[in-house]
Write a structure and sequence with these properties.
about 850 residues; Heat Shock Protein 90; Rossmann fold; 21 helices; 37 strands; elongated
Length: about 850
Amino acid sequence: MNQSYISTDTPVDLTNCDREPIHILGNVQSFGALVAISADWIVQHASANCEQLLGIPAETMIGLPLKRFLPAATIEKLRHKLGANSHENAVMRMFGMDVFEDGRPFDISAHQSNHSYILEFEAKSRGTEHDELAIVTPMMRRIAAQKDLLGVSQAAAQQLRELAGFDRVMVYQFGPEGDGTVIAEAKDDADSETYLGLHFPASDIPRQARELYKRSHLRLIADVDDKVAPILPQFSPEGEPLDLSLAVSRAVSPIHLEYLRNMKVRASMSVSIIIRGELWGLFACHHREPLYVDYERRTAIELLAQFYAYELERREAREIADTVGRAQRLHDRLMMGLSSGEDLASGFRSIAGEIGKVIPHDGIALYMSDSYTTLGSAPSEADFQPIVRFLNTAAASRVYATDNLVARLPSMAHAVGSCAGILAIPISRLPRDYIVLFRTEVARQVTWAGNPHKPVEVGSYGARLTPRKSFEVWKEDVANRSMSWSPTSLRAAEAIRVTLLEVVLKLSDEMNAERKRAQDQQELLIAELNHRVRNVLGLIRSLVAQSRKSASSIEEFSFAVDGRIQALAKAHDQLTETEWSPVAFADLVNIELKAYLSDDQARVAILGTPVKLAPEAFSSIALVFHELVTNSVKYGALSTADGRVTVEVDRRDDGFFRLSWSESGGPAVKPPERRGFGTTIIEKSIPFELKGHAELQFKLTGVQAEFLIPERFVTEMAEQEAPAVVAAEPVARPAGNPLSGTALIVEDNMIIAMDAADILGDMGVDNVHTASTVAEALRIIESHQHSFAVLDVHLGAETSLPVAQVLRSKNVPFILASGYGSQSDSLAKFPTAPIVTKPFTAQSLSRAVQGLWK
């Protein structure tokens, strides 16, 4: 390869090359004469070969004004050209100029170096009758016609070889670690040796030399054995060396010359390939014999190299545009797939498929909220934990890619079969959630032009790079590596990162909004529940207070309060079973009558239009009809076997629905001497609660009641919605033989437990044990024999299921009590047993207990 080391009279320590300033103490190749002048055009330095090329001894020029050697017209042209230089590294060029006005043409290069101007003169080797641009233009078209990188590179190598005349022209591309590969080669067909595909270590072209290639784009070595001319004097009066970084004719390192001789190369030229200010690669040119390329032709070569770099950049830009287009299409597909509310985890398979269309991979994983989901060849969750910890130390919110994970995470050496290389796409603002693409190990054979692990030896020039004596192909199996992630893949990954971050933020915003709605709804429900509980407590308090006023005995008071609370409970059960939607009026009446009527259903007739009652009206009407039923059972038509009740519903023209209650066939009715609480409920509830009308008459033949309900509380039912007739259940009566033995009550509310114990005691149970927890109940069961048990299903944070299972294993019958009714999902797990709905009464609990032995 055509290396360009720093040419110095004293060795340079290359181990510190990144920090050394680039000062050149050098010699000049024989094809160019060099003169350094100060700002006032006084000659400060000259190359020893000035007399050979210019006809003026260098010693006579030092310290004299330039006008002593050059015509005034030439100096004026030089001043004008140098004044037009626009930037620090600008080089002024003049071709075929009659410098001394004596017919001898020279090519001139001039540039500023610190406080000096350096002028270089090359004698013109050919005439002026040629057009370099006309030669280069068709070459550019041939390069542009190629389809891919390798085709463009091969065409560029061939065109440059034709233009420069070298035996071999190679395109050398730098890798990410500074190493390089020959990707194209144009050579003489008779030459069997090839460097195409050879890999060269980064040490072949040190970092400092690469920095020089970025400043000076072309370097020619016309003859490796040519003698070079020293710079006179070596130092300026201030003791500073002359910086020859941009000098086109300066000599190169003797080490590099030895390097070329070992390759049997007599002439060499290197041309920088610069893309966006960075050194992408080089054109490396070799010739078996000395070869001089004049300055004008070298300028055309630079133009061709710049066009090649432009073509690479253009194709790269087009590839980027294609990548952006694919990424945008991917963005659209992902957004469409996730717009329905599907989160990343549930849509991961489709996301992985879309990513696979853009970035080839062997496996993919989603790591989100500590959950790990994979597809394809991916490491286990245990193996992934070190990877995610490693990723969390990388730069946040940036795509991370490596084709050699083991080099950065040695503990993953055992997992190269699934994750030799990774590409991690962060999908959250914090370094926590990722989509990670995996590539498996690819056993690659890299063909090296020497051993890359031994680039530095101690040679005749000290501890520095020594040219390799042999260029035999040295092959190294590269383990623990995957296929490299291309720049296109990295750009696509970045676009995917932005897309997925947008999706995550969108879902997060939706989740936050949903959480806010749920929180608001929860607060509303809590407020509504609090309101309803307060209303219920207030209603019960009022029922108790008013019932006490109208009751003549404790038994009458207890019966009245119990019945009214049960009426409310039944009404609420009906509402909750229908999820607080309208309930059939006939169902309300039938359920209220079930506790009092025998199988003789003909005693109560429900006529007219089938209707449903709105939830807002249901409780009030239920309480009214409870009072009508209980009064009828105690004093009216339902207290005798011959009594009858007719309930009728019809719609009036004024928009009200009329509900009527009519009794007949019972004992003679006398108006009450005082208005009790029950009568007040019948007469006042509907007008007060529903803004309707109520009329109650105590006729001799039976009680008559009529209620007008606003239509917003009533809905006519379709014929197919008509409620089924509910068979009446007999009133629970104490068994002929009173209950006896020991009962177990499992209930976490003390007052309810005490009430249930009193009810069972009244039914004849000898002894009652109570427990508020499962553990306490199990201890009691182990210590005592029980005839039966009453189990509350829900005991705070637990259920009584373990107790039910133990009782079933001991053949002890039991009933289940639940405030959720028979529709509770928890009951599905319990053994089959009778169910009583809370709050239970003496009648409902008695009926359930007696049902255990039917």
